[in-house]
Design a protein that fits this description.
This protein is of the alpha+beta class and about 325 residues long. The chain is about 50% helix and about 15% strand. The chain has 2 domains: about 1-180, no CATH class; about 185-290, no CATH class. It has helices spanning about 35-50, 140-145, 145-155, 155-165, 170-180, 185-210, 215-225, 230-250, 255-285, 300-315; strands at about 1-5, 10-15, 30-35, 70-75, 75-85, 95-100, 165, 285-290, 295. The longest helix has 30 residues, at about 255-285. It is elongated and about 85 Å long.
């Protein structure tokens, strides 16, 4: 990872003592070094690896020349090119344009501050454990000549990075992490908007169905919440708090936890909406439409009671003639 600091593009790196652990042990320190210097060490390390493998014809890519401040003339004006940070990401290199021969003052050509030069062949392996020594199979004579010991003490990448290192403390690391954090891309924003709108639609449908909920269902739901130790204001407060937390995480660019919380809350809303829909469907089979068009709930016990009551009323309002013997 690298970032722009004090007019110099720098790369942040950690040094580990035990490479065989794949850099999983505690680093002995975190440092920064200028990007061109660090890249020189990396390219020298790569060239040495090719030589150790018997590839004596290896030639560095053309873009490697831009580790040095290189002059370039355009429209009777001199500009200077040097490798550094790419715009918009902290995980790529680019050839930057400068106006001075020390490559410290950034400049632009036609409104662009990065030269259109292919540097794909010299990209650094960001966020990967890089060994200082290239271990290869050698014959016994070369081992006797302390081949591996010399490679350890003269490792190009680690020697260069260690020579030009500067301590990167907490503030430095925090700056690097802030610039390393990726923002929301256009597809991310579209998906974020879709999930948010979907959640709002379900919330609106839930409110509408709750307004049509019968008194009996409302009392049953309230009893269930009370058994769980909750009241309706508590549920509303928890929901609002979760929405605020999601908004904060989204503003901070914490994608993973934002997606997770959005999916959880949308799933919960969908499940509750399905419950209300099923309950309303069951209740619909137990309703009657009265003569005036109002909806009346039908209960089997009430209907049997009403039937017996009507029969009693009918008997009470009818005069029966006595039977003559």
């Amino acid at each position: 990872m690298f970032f722009y600091s004090n007019d110099v593009d720098v790369i942040v790196f950690s040094v580990h003592d035990h490479q065989y652990q794949q850099c999983s042990d505690e680093p002995i320190g975190t440092y920064i070094a200028p990007v061109p210097v660090f890249l020189e060490g990396y390219l020298a390390q790569y060239a040495q690896a090719m030589e150790d493998k018997g590839n004596d014809d290896y030639v560095a890519p053309d873009a490697a020349q831009y580790t040095a401040c290189t002059a370039f003339q355009s429209r009777n004006t001199y500009y200077y090119f040097q490798i550094g940070c790419a715009d918009g990401t902290s995980q790529e290199l680019a050839v930057n344009i400068y106006s001075d021969n020390t490559c410290t003052t950034r400049s632009q050509v036609d409104g662009i501050d990065d030269a259109n030069i292919d540097v794909s062949k010299i990209q650094l392996p960001f966020k990967k454990c890089q060994a200082c020594v290239n271990w290869v199979n050698k014959n016994d004579d070369e081992i006797d000549d302390q081949f591996y010991e010399n490679r350890q003490t003269e490792a190009p990448l680690c020697k260069t990075a260690w020579t030009y290192r500067e301590k990167c403390g907490r503030k430095c690391q925090r700056t690097g992490l802030e610039q390393d954090r990726e923002g929301w891309s256009t597809p991310d924003k579209v998906l974020l908007a879709v999930l948010s709108v979907f959640g709002c639609i379900m919330l609106g449908l839930i409110i509408r169905k709750r307004q049509k909920m019968s008194n009996k269902d409302a009392l049953l739901e309230q009893a269930a919440m009370s058994a769980a130790g909750l009241q309706q204001p508590h549920v509303i407060g928890i929901f609002v708090l979760v929405v605020l937390v999601i908004a904060v995480f989204a503003l901070l660019g914490l994608k993973n936890i934002t997606w997770a919380l959005l999916l959880i809350i949308n799933t919960a809303l969908f499940a509750y909406l399905m419950k209300l829909t099923l309950d309303s469907g069951v209740s619909a089979g137990e309703t009657l439409i009265g003569p005036d068009g109002t909806i009346m709930r039908k209960d089997s016990d009430d209907s049997s009671l009403d039937s017996s009551t009507r029969q009693s009323s009918a008997r009470a309002g009818t005069y029966m003639l006595p039977t003559l013997a």
